Amino acid sequence: MFYRRSGIRFTTYNAERQIWPLPLDRRLAGFMLLLGLAAPFLVDRLYLVGYLLPWIIWSTAALGLNMLMGVAGQVHLGYGAVIGIGAYASVHAVRAGVPFELAMLLGGVVSASIGVVFGAAALRVKGLYLAMATLAMQYIVDFVISHVPAISGGSQASITVPPITFLGIAVQGDRAVYYLALAICVIVTLFMLNLRRTSLGRALAAVREKDYAAEVIGVDTFRFKLLAFWVSSFIGGVVGAVLAVCYFRQISPEQFHIELSIQLIAMVIVGGMGSVLGSFFGAALILFAPIVLNNLIGTLATSFAWQLSADLRAHLPLMLYGAMIVGFLLWEPLGLAKIYNNIRNYFLVWPFRHAQR
To answer: Which whole-number Å values give the CA distances from 231 to 69, 85, 119, 199, 201, in the listed order?
Structure first.
């Protein structure tokens, strides 16, 4: 069988602690990376720019939020504001003549510095109270960006991103921006994959389960909660820089409102809390399901001559989209990553029935 655990014996701890212990997992990861690298030569420009590029960027953003919500167990309803801070900080830095490599890091640092201020509420409150604190951050940042002309130029204004270079290479054309977004996504993914194997990841897991119990066994919850907000906000700021340069090309305040934060939370929850693979699954579902459902309803309405009103035609895909998300969560509350893991575990022992649960 091509996918079976039998016959694999680990003789060292390092071999057992690999990110992908099974050979097929390593081959699949390598295949997906090669597929991502070859995508600009395999798919049409419309699919590259309209589907693959936003999926990679939003998957990276979901990874950053998942690090905070899934790994550290802290609620954040203002992650869209974190991305907006990074986008505006990096674009203003690039316009001032700062190289994009430094501007991207600057956007991450500015987002992390502001995000950790509101994350400090996690030291005193949690649950719904922490959610309200981060929601306040979203509205405060929205107001400041919209009403401070030095930042955005005004509530109806937009800022054009100037041409940039990355490591001395001009980022021009669809392939260049795609590879830049892919490189950042790969770096963040590798960080998240290795996080659980570090002392930081184990400390964050202890804080997630019971913060006061973690304090008893010697984990400094004050330090690790702030560190979780800092790292997650830094990733969000970097994603904001990549989003502005590689996708939007022109940023305005309405691009980073509360709807963006809600979408990112939906990606994390539907994909699977704390799962790296789930962040990609969740981003794909949230981004592409409405498009697929809209096209499907249009095709069925044309084929069967259904007389649908314009209002019903506009809202029916959203209704089915919401019902599909609820159905997924009822079927498997741990998200799409758990569904994939169940299928994988089945094939690990096939044709026997003693599947790992």
So the answer is: 12, 15, 11, 15, 12
